[in-house]
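Model: Ready when you are.
Researcher: Fold this.
Model:
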Amino acid sequence: MDQIMLDTRRSVQTGTLSPDAVLNSLRSVIVVVDADARILYVNSAGEHFFCSSAKHLAGQSLDHLMPVDSPLFTLIRQARAGGCPAAEYDVALENPKIGRHVVNIWASPLADVPDAIVVSMQEQSIAAKIERQLSHRGAARSVSALAAMLAHEVKNPLAGIRGAAQLLEQNVSAEDRALTRLIRDETDRVCALVDRMEVFSDGGPQAREPVNIHQVLNRVRMLVESGAGGALSIAENYDPSLPAVYGHRDQLTQVFLNLVKNAAEALPSAGGKVTITTRYGHGVRFAVPGSHARVHLPLMISIHDNGEGVPDDIKPHIFDPFVTTKRGGSGLGLALVAKIIGEHGGVIEVDSQPGRTEVRVRLPMAATNEGR
């Protein structure tokens, strides 16, 4: 360790290791602002956070990027007035361009530069994602138990009721046959509902293999565009070098067909757009609750639409069963999606506001591609 520190110190002294290289390797957002809150410096994570290049951001006032009443500015003023670092946790930063982020913020005066403040922001989304996944999987397990109960306790007696109705139909008048037909039709309807619920039942582990996710997404795109009768064109923004996903092809097709159809159905009547994006996230790892293990989920697939968004009262429960914003919807589609993604060891999250909704799915890659 001493030798590593010595080598690093020499690299800095000789100029082979620049401060920019160090700051740009950090996952935290680093921004330096002057006395007028104009941006003097932003690192690579900051470019990603603000959805703009460092060159474009330089010289811009921070209050053009964030609401002036944001706690961020209060923290900057506090650090400048006190001449010492200030911090605040779980701060929500939001605007139409960057979406909504919950971050921890540290602000500190920059030595030798009067009134300059260094702001460091670290997103808290990782812990939130894990917490949401646990609740989604818990909801899916409750539906699994309900599905098993329905299949066993409801379908068997329904078969007897339907059979009895058929026998009665042979010996009743024409007027009464309408009632026996009603019994049969309603029995079939309830059986169909139970069949829909059975997709949640635990049928044991599914065989998984390396899956080219772009082949899955292309099939989904063709299905949704065909179903729209040519009235919809889905944009693609794919990373062609993306490695294979470790998963079940049919189940992944079911997941993304559901998500893309939801996005398409949420579009406005004019100017609607759906975009599917794939990318590789280096170093994206998640802690597994209850153990010291960490899982690598480098493959991200996002579905973006410019529909009206998810209502605020629905957002915390969007993956719960029987919760839906669709007229006549069953509320089972996204619950099933959460179940399948959870079984694949992945993470799903939704970032939604009026005019901008993005569903992000993170999945593990196949072991044969670990060398990427």
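Researcher: Now this one.
Model:
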Amino acid sequence: MFVLYSLGLTQTPVLIVAVLLSAGFVVALMFFWSHPSPLWLSVAAVVSSLGVWSGSVALQDSPTTSVLFSLAAAVILTQRGWPPLAWIAAGLVVVLAPVGVMWLVDSSALWEAYTVVASISYACSMVVFLLNRYGWNRYLELDAARRTGEELAVAQERYRFAADLHDIQGHTLHVLRLKTQLADKLIDRDPAAAHQHLAEAQDLIAETLANTRSLAFGERTITVAGELANARQLFAAAGIACTVEDQSPSESTAAQVNEELLGLVVREATTNILRHAQPTAVSVRLNPGRVTIRNDGATDTRRPLSGLARLAERFEAIGGSLTTTTAAGIFTTEAHTR
């Protein structure tokens, strides 16, 4: 539109051809508003548009040709981001330079119109492309934030999968070790019991394979009751007395995610007791949204419990908490979801 308007006001034939040629370079340059343009195109657009503008001033022809150079300068200045104010001011100086030179040559001519039109065209061009750059930068930031959110979601899902896989495989390996040790002790004096433990170990392996497949396909569910039944069997096999006070919530009271987290606490605490402690008794208390597990096998040396630490992070994410304390030889694990 500006090009056609300029052509309509331009009276010099040579200048008309120059305007058309320069307009082609400037329009091509504007396609590179979001990233740096080729050097040859930038030079061609600036030189040709500045030449057209200088020629218009020298011939005292249409002042609207200043729009071509203003657009070229605005595109180049904003291609690489938000330009410094000094560069913007330098662009204005270059735009007004032909008018200043001609004013020195012929101060009697009316150069105010050229000055006003050139200043307005440059200011409008810079405002348009600065606003465009601002909007583009905001879009890039939002897109980067979206990609970061997606990557974080993937990382969190991988972490959750790794934690669940650790719970399955780690728990199984510790239980298998216990059962094979028991079978080894009983193989000579009670072969039937030894074979029973080996059969249970095989069943446990099959169950673990099924749980691993369920985890891989997102079908795995964990319940407090199921984990508690498994824990009681393991404690009985290890000769550890286990008492349970069950005031657990009904299905309508606890959400599935809370039920799964509490079940994971029972599983991880059972594994830690069998692996790290030497208790004679374990007590479990279930309340709505809460589980408390105590054992009398606490040692003076505290070991880092990475499994419970990971679970504690998941409890915090839903507004709950998981804590462990030691007092008078009693190790207590307490978790609640609300």
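Researcher: Key takeaway?
Model: The first strand starts at residue 241 and ends at 246.
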